[in-house]
Automatic annotation (TrEMBL):
<keyword id="KW-0547">Nucleotide-binding</keyword>
<dbReference type="InterPro" id="IPR029052">
    <property type="entry name" value="Metallo-depent_PP-like"/>
</dbReference>
<feature type="signal peptide">
    <location>
        <begin position="1"/>
        <end position="26"/>
    </location>
</feature>
<keyword id="KW-1133">Transmembrane helix</keyword>
<protein>
    <submittedName>
        <fullName>Bifunctional metallophosphatase/5'-nucleotidase</fullName>
    </submittedName>
</protein>
<comment type="similarity">
    <text>Belongs to the 5'-nucleotidase family.</text>
</comment>
<dbReference type="InterPro" id="IPR006146">
    <property type="entry name" value="5'-Nucleotdase_CS"/>
</dbReference>
<dbReference type="Pfam" id="PF02872">
    <property type="entry name" value="5_nucleotid_C"/>
</dbReference>
<keyword id="KW-0378">Hydrolase</keyword>
<dbReference type="InterPro" id="IPR036907">
    <property type="entry name" value="5'-Nucleotdase_C_sf"/>
</dbReference>
<dbReference type="InterPro" id="IPR004843">
    <property type="entry name" value="Calcineurin-like_PHP"/>
</dbReference>
<keyword id="KW-0812">Transmembrane</keyword>
<feature type="domain" description="5'-Nucleotidase C-terminal">
    <location>
        <begin position="367"/>
        <end position="522"/>
    </location>
</feature>
<dbReference type="InterPro" id="IPR008334">
    <property type="entry name" value="5'-Nucleotdase_C"/>
</dbReference>
<feature type="domain" description="Calcineurin-like phosphoesterase">
    <location>
        <begin position="41"/>
        <end position="268"/>
    </location>
</feature>
<feature type="transmembrane region" description="Helical">
    <location>
        <begin position="617"/>
        <end position="643"/>
    </location>
</feature>
<dbReference type="Pfam" id="PF00149">
    <property type="entry name" value="Metallophos"/>
</dbReference>
């Protein structure tokens, strides 16, 4: 009898286990799932392009390969959600058609993107350019992605610029969020524009609400009015190495209802998602070199977990979709005919052959030392001011910040398209692609301040690392902040610096003398951000030849003899046309194979070297520190006297 009871209990336990097992399986089968593919910071890289990844030269990216990848993903997951986190424009010759053809948004539509948001570089053509681009896309009649943005502040009274943008936003149909159905999953997709992104648009006409407040309000509206299974935020804010200042990590912490943040702006490549509570933050890097993909599975509590997250390189494992290539070819014909012909160029025109390895774009950010890419670009600006500009003196110094250099040069043929890609941002008053060069006067004292910006502040703002032609300076990284530059002199060189390899003449910099300095328009506009970073201690104020402060930097644009703006990219192309020929082909000079002592590092830690020749900025800091210390001591002494007096009174 006892044995029979044991058998009965065992059989019952077995069937209980089976029931539980199949119940769990059924629950897993019933759990909602979603496949997501994402990108951000494409920057008009619609074609496959040559670049350097690590130490390897490669052809990568391009919407033809992206389309092939997307189609493969949709074959296995037909209800794939396809998203982009902004900065889809500005970076290649396709941006030349930004406001007339809107190629980036139209190609997103062709690839089947569901939703996108705005980035700071969508403002590079100004309010008028952005408005024209949105209206052109809307009037194309083609399939377009939803456009989401929740933190624009539309006041009752708008100025003309703001009203123009509001009309364009409405014509396209931009809204704070959109609801998308994919299979049995209902998704709310929000867009938001970050604080640092806004600081990168010094001429932005729009006002923006705090991103966290705007997203919180939008999430509450979704929860009150929609039946969303999942909330995704397309954030053009970015992440950094410090969670306390990393905008999208702060957003995830403050708005825990978000399930997924696609994080653009900082060009971050996250090999694994950042998890903040139940929120996942993902990023795949810039220029469409990689696309991100992931699977989301809903948990019992209604929240979602990521499975199978991967960044997929758009390398030659993916063939280019023929339909995409045909559409891009139509745009390319317009670029040659309507834009480059004005300059006497075509996009595939070879300017020179390059046998040398150049520093990468990332190298400009990583190190404060001299490199050949920074030298080449700054020399091109110097040359343009000396030989192409009309009505202005030759340059004393030309300056290039790392943040404006967008790519490097590989070995082999350098074409007009590759030159444009290397310095592609913005536009000028002529509304043609590319920031124009400007020429302003700075005092010798301000030249030293610029060197100190590079030596002391660029670790905090790496896009402000400076590369210069016409000046040399030495800095000691071990000295006190704003006191690192120990020596600076002008370099007197030929208009085409590569022709001066035989010898170099130096000249002392005089503090009160005015020097003619050349850079691009955007760099001039961003000077106030550098001043803020130094809390007003470092000040570089552009002046005219009489030493009067310049109020409008557009009045300083350099023009050629025919009255055309000299573009930064054009200066680089024209400079390459000065290179000597070997046979029928111009060749990159060996001058750019080596360094030339423009930025020298003195690593001495000797007390005498750390304290000698203090800069006026160091004196200011020390004076403030001593004053603060004195005030603290006096305050503490006064407090002590009061305490002693009270004790005596109590007695």
């Amino acid at each position: 009898m006892k044995r029979r009871s044991l058998w009965t209990a065992a059989i019952a336990a077995f069937f209980t286990f089976l029931a539980a097992f199949f119940s769990v399986c059924a629950e897993e089968q019933e759990a909602k799932q979603l496949h997501v593919v994402f990108s951000h910071d494409i920057h008009s890289h619609l074609d496959t392009f040559p670049t350097v990844e690590g130490d390897t030269e490669t052809m990568i990216g391009g919407m033809g390969r992206m389309m092939t990848f997307i189609q493969q993903e949709k074959e296995s997951s037909p209800d794939t959600l396809l998203l982009d986190g902004g900065d889809f424009s500005m970076g290649t010759v396709y941006q030349m058609l930004y406001e007339t053809e809107a190629p980036e948004l139209r190609m997103f539509g062709y690839l089947g993107y569901d939703a996108v948001t705005i980035g700071n570089h969508e403002f590079d053509y100004g309010s008028e350019g952005l408005a024209r681009m949105l209206k052109r896309a809307a009037k194309s009649g083609e399939a377009l992605p939803e456009f989401v943005l929740c933190n624009v502040k539309w006041k009752k009274q708008l100025n003309q610029e703001q009203q123009m943008l509001k009309n364009a936003f409405e014509e396209y149909g931009i809204k704070p969020y959109t609801m998308i159905q994919k299979g049995d999953v209902r998704i709310a997709v929000i867009g938001v524009f970050g604080e640092d992104a806004l600081e990168c648009v010094p001429s932005c006409a729009l006002e923006f609400e705090d991103p966290v407040k705007a997203v919180k309000r939008t999430v509450k509206k979704i929860q009150d009015e929609e039946e969303a299974d999942l909330i995704v935020c397309l954030s053009h804010s970015g992440t950094t190495g410090n969670p306390e200042t990393s905008e999208d990590e702060i957003l995830a912490e403050e708005v825990p209802e978000l399930d997924l943040i696609v994080s653009g702006h900082t060009h971050t490549k996250l090999k694994q998602p950042i998890k903040v509570g139940n929120t996942a933050i993902v990023s795949c890097g810039e220029y469409g070199k990689q696309m991100g993909k992931l699977d989301l599975v809903q948990k019992e509590d209604g929240r979602w977990e990521i499975r199978d997250y991967e960044l997929v390189s758009m390398n030659n494992e993916f063939s280019s979709d023929q339909g995409v290539l045909e559409r891009l070819e139509q745009f390319s014909e317009l670029i040659d005919r309507e834009y480059l012909s004005v300059y006497g160029f075509t996009r595939d025109m070879v300017l020179c052959e390059n046998p040398y390895l150049f520093a990468t774009k990332d190298d400009l950010y990583k190190s404060k030392t001299e490199n050949n890419l920074g030298n080449l670009v700054s020399d091109a600006f110097y040359y343009a001011a000396c030989k192409l500009a009309a009505g202005t003196p030759p340059a004393d110094v030309a300056v290039v910040p790392s943040g404006c250099v967008r790519d490097t040069f590989t070995t082999g043929s350098i074409t007009v398209e590759e030159v444009f890609k290397s310095y592609s941002l913005g536009t000028g008053p002529d509304r043609r692609a590319g920031y124009p060069l400007i020429g302003v006067y700075l005092t010798g004292d301000e030249l030293l301040a610029a060197a100190e910006i590079d030596a002391s502040l660029s670790d905090f703002m790496k896009s402000a690392r400076l590369y210069a032609s016409g000046i040399t300076y030495t800095f000691n990284p071990n000295r006190m902040i704003l006191n690192k530059v120990t020596r600076a002199k002008l370099i007197r060189q030929p208009a085409a610096p590569w022709q001066g390899a035989g010898g170099t003449a130096y000249e002392e910099i005089r503090d009160d003398e005015l020097y003619f300095v050349v850079s691009d328009l955007y760099t001039g506009q961003m000077l106030k951000e550098v001043e803020k970073l130094s809390y007003g201690i470092l000040s570089v104020t552009p002046k005219d030849k009489n030493g009067k402060k310049i109020e409008d930097l557009e009045s300083c644009i350099l023009y050629d003899k025919d009255g055309n703006e000299i573009k930064a990219w054009e200066a680089l192309a024209e400079y390459m046309l000065t290179f000597e020929k070997e046979g029928e082909t111009r060749v990159m000079p060996a001058y750019y194979k080596t360094m030339h002592g423009r930025k020298l590092v003195d690593n001495s830690k000797r007390a005498a070297d750390l304290l000698k020749n203090p800069s006026k900025y160091a004196v200011i800091i020390c004076t403030i520190a001593v004053s603060a210390g004195a005030i603290t001591v006096v305050g503490a002494a006064a407090a002590a006297r009061c305490i002693r007096k009270r004790i005596r009174l109590k007695r």
